[in-house]
Write a structure and sequence with these properties.
- The chain is mainly alpha-helical.
- The protein is built from three helices and no strands.
- It folds into two domains: 1-36; 48-105.
- The protein is elongated, with a radius of gyration of 38 Å.
Length: 105
C-alpha cells in the first residue's frame, strides 16, 4: 500500500469519525431540548415549559402594569407632603429663634 492510498484512507476515516461525532452530539442536543419541552399530554402533544414560563412572565407584567400610574400619583402626593414639611420646618425655626430671644433678657 503506497503513501497516497494510506493518507486517502485515513482522511476518509477522519471524515467518517467527524460525521459520527456530529450526529451523536446533535442527537444529544435534541434529547435535551425534548426534556425542556415538558410532560406529554393527550395524543402525544407536549406542554412546553418555556411557554408556561412565558405566560407566567406575561401575567406578572399585566398584573404589575397598574403600579406605574399609582406610583406617579403617590409621588405627587409625597411632593406636596415634602413642601408642607418644609414650611413647617421654617416656621419652627422662626418659633425657636423667637423663644430664644425672649429667654435671653
Amino acid at each position: 500500500m503506497n503513501t497516497f492510498t494510506l493518507l486517502a484512507l485515513l482522511s476518509v476515516l477522519a471524515v467518517a469519525g467527524l460525521f459520527i461525532a456530529l450526529a451523536y452530539f446533535l442527537f444529544a442536543i435534541i434529547d435535551q431540548l425534548e426534556m425542556i419541552g415538558g410532560e406529554t399530554q393527550g395524543y402525544g402533544a407536549k406542554a412546553s415549559l418555556l411557554s408556561k414560563i412565558r405566560m407566567g412572565v406575561r401575567a406578572i407584567e399585566v398584573q404589575t402594569g397598574y403600579i406605574a400610574p399609582q406610583v406617579m400619583k403617590l409621588n405627587g402626593t409625597l411632593t406636596s407632603v415634602r413642601d408642607g414639611l418644609g414650611a413647617i420646618d421654617s416656621n419652627l425655626a422662626g418659633v425657636i429663634a423667637n423663644v430664644s430671644r425672649q429667654e435671653a433678657p
